[in-house]
Amino acid sequence: MFDTTEKFCKDRAVHNAVLDGIKILDGKDKQKTPEAIPSILAEALAVSFDNHVGHDYIEDADARFEYYHRKEKRFKFDLNYFNRITKGGVPSKTLNIALAGTGVGKSLFMCHCASSFLTQGKNVLYITLEMAEERIAERIDANLMDVTIDDLHTMPKDLYDNKMKKLNSKTSGHLIIKEYPTASAHSGHFRALLNELSLKKTFKPDIVFVDYLNICASSRFKGGNISSYFYIKAIAEELRGLAVEFDLPIFSATQTTRSGFVSTDIGLEDTSESFGLPATADFMFALMSNEELEALGQMKVKQLKNRYNDPSMNRAFIIGVDRAKMRLYDVENNAQNIVESNQTEETEDYVTPEQAYDKFSDFKL
Predict the structure, then answer these.
(1) Which residue, 235, 228, 230, is CA-closest to 212?
(2) Which of 125, 192, 244, 329 lies most in the core, judged by the most C-beta atoms within 10 Å?
(3) For the chain, what is the mean pLDDT?
(4) Which sequence spans correspond to the domains of the chain?
(5) Which CATH number applies to 74-335: 3.40.50.300, 3.40.50.720, 3.90.950.20, 3.40.50.10740?
(6) What pTM was estimated for this model as a whole?
(7) pLDDT digits (tens, 9 = 90+) for 331-341
(8) Which helix (H) or strand (E) segment is 316 a member of?
């Protein structure tokens, strides 16, 4: 009601300002000249219910203290190390990017996370520009039903129905998969889809997956003379803006360069097409694999950029991968044998009031 009322007042103010301008131009208002029209319109456009003009450091100290101690809503992974490096999951209004070579597991990672969030009761929107909707659903079926993709095609209908019924009883969340042609959809299409889902299905996603960023289009630029740096950066900025607008986290992925594809230690410099993408993302990590890791059923993850935590802690770690069932899982601690990964032991973050007081009692203020 607040937002609707504010919009109505803005619209009426602009409408009245235009009518006043017409009166001035027609000579019906003898007290004002045409030079007053810009200020009349500017005053109408400035109508707002928001009286916040900045943070007063002294007067807003209580509000700032509450902000420090407010528990932020986060979307928790089912993978231990990902929760460690993100301090318990990713927050809303963020863009999170997986960097990997072709066939390493970008879509596998996003399908696994979509399955995990669905089982947590979250509403998930999966936008695909690479594979058909049925292919994505097939991977999520394999993950949630704990069967291989090959077994899905030979599974009897009654067994399939029973598994879907059990899944439906375990979660209150919903998953919508929407396919767009490659390089034809941009943030404007995604915004329209979110509004349409809200209107027609009363479906509001908690988290969105876009598979994947480099084959999206930009709503601001048309492909052609513009360089890939600005084009991909624009797509990343538009997706992050969408995350802020709808108050949700967005996951996507990008490809490595040719040298990064064969590298066993990927860095930010191995991001293909545009270095503007890691500059925009809130959280970026690399997925790496080689023959040795594949033989062990494992994948290496390396932090590249992290606005949620110190990226130098748990810089790299190992996760297990079951490609037949499109599933990721935690491995034993003895498998975490990465040199210079700076891994930490899992500890409890809770601090008692007495410990907190002792810690800050000698603070200079």
Answers:
(1) 235
(2) 125
(3) 86
(4) 1-48, 74-335
(5) 3.40.50.300
(6) 0.78
(7) 888 777 776 66
(8) strand 316-322
